[in-house]
Amino acid sequence: MVSSGARVKGSIVPPTDPNVDIARLGIGQDKLSVTPLQMAEVAAAVANRGVLMKPRIGDRIIDPDGRTINRIGSEQQSRVMKPSTASIVTEMMKAVVKEGTGTAAALNGIEVAGKTGTAQIDPLQNITQPWFIAFAPADHPTIAIAVTVERSLGGFGGTVAAPIARDVLEVLLRNSVGG
Predict the structure, then answer these.
(1) Which terminal Cβ of the chain has fewer Cβ within 10 Å, N or C?
(2) How many Å apart are CA 68 and CA 114, to the nearest integer?
(3) DSSP state string for 30-92
(4) Over the Cα atoms of the chain, what is R_g?
């Protein structure tokens, strides 16, 4: 199963706050604040057919000579969605990369599932925070990532963060098969 790194808390203003626009909050705007690690967990949970894994840093402990002295196993934290829901979301994420806003994350010969996002930081100065979350290979995932670029001048998730995600996925997937 795909696992993500250590958790750092994001924040959300209670929806009962009269200054919160619930509709905008529901699409990731307004008073919502998440970390890249939390968004990597979102991608990993979809990739794992709805299972959220306990975060961990690394998968082994090595001694000064480079020998593995302990392996850190994966551990399920909770089920956050039904497998059928995760399957539907996976298909939508695959479409984002095939023909939607995330085509810049496509890899030759490897299907990628992803989702773009763009947070408005300062609309008057056109400052944004582009996002892209992804996992690959889409049907047998081994890697889930989140990419964000803070304070981009007018950038979008599909044009700024997705190409970075593509490059990172390509390197990680190449290294995971020994190539």
Answers:
(1) C
(2) 33
(3) TTEE--HHHHHHHHHHHHTTTEEEPP-S-SEEE-TTS-EEEE----EEEE-S-HHHHHHHHHH
(4) 17
Cα–Cα dist 107/111, whole Å: 7
Q: Report which DSSP code applies to 110.
A: B
Question: Does 3.40.50.150 match the CATH number of domain 11-176?
Answer: no
User: Whole-angstrom Cα distance, residue 8 to residue 173?
Assistant: 26
Tell me the pTM.
Answer: 0.83
For the segment 144-162, what is each residue's pLDDT rounded down to a tens digit?
A: 999 999 999 999 999 999 9
Express each pLDDT in 66-79 by its tens digit. Answer: 999 999 999 999 99
- Residue 50 phi, psi (nearest 5): 100, 0
Using CA atoms, how far apart are residues 142 and 139, in angstroms rounded to an integer?
10
pLDDT at 179: 47
Q: 115 φ, ψ to 5°? A: -145, 130
User: Nearest-CA neighbor of 153 among 177, 134, 125?
Assistant: 125
